[in-house]
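FAQ: What does the model actually see?

It sees only this:
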Amino acid sequence: APSIAQRKFHLLLVDAKGSARKVAEGLVFPHGMVLTNEGRTLLVCETFASRITAFDRAHDGSLCNRRVWAELSHGSYQTIAEGVASGAPLPDGMAIDAEGIVWIGDAAGRGPLRVAEGGGILERIDTGDLAAFAVALGGSSGRDLFICASPPLLSNDPATDHRASLLVCSLAAPAAK
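And it is asked to produce this:
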């Protein structure tokens, strides 16, 4: 079987009529996505490449000018175990705040991270022994970070251990509009 890094995935755009077309290819385990720059830029978490990739987005949804927005490690991981053991963040779900900084879930278990363009980690929220797999900004003020959390990858058997939590904390910067 091919390693995680050898499995390349595509992004598909599904239009209002239900038609799908490929707009990007060759991503390493893509997960969370957000639009920024008034919808002109798409950011995508590539979990097992430990990076956030950016694309310019045209009015028709086409993507071009692929580039690394944040490098959180050097290189891709061949297996889930290698990624978890690396100690690097494994970006999963993502949200963006009004300052243009992203919050990512970290499937390796270090809690949500606030990451600037270039890869600087500005803030971390401690979730104890739980990993953050998805994050969302909202609430009445837009300053609540909602965190979907459960045991980190490879630390339990999800077929028998059904622990999961929805956590929330208040932040200084609100969600992007």
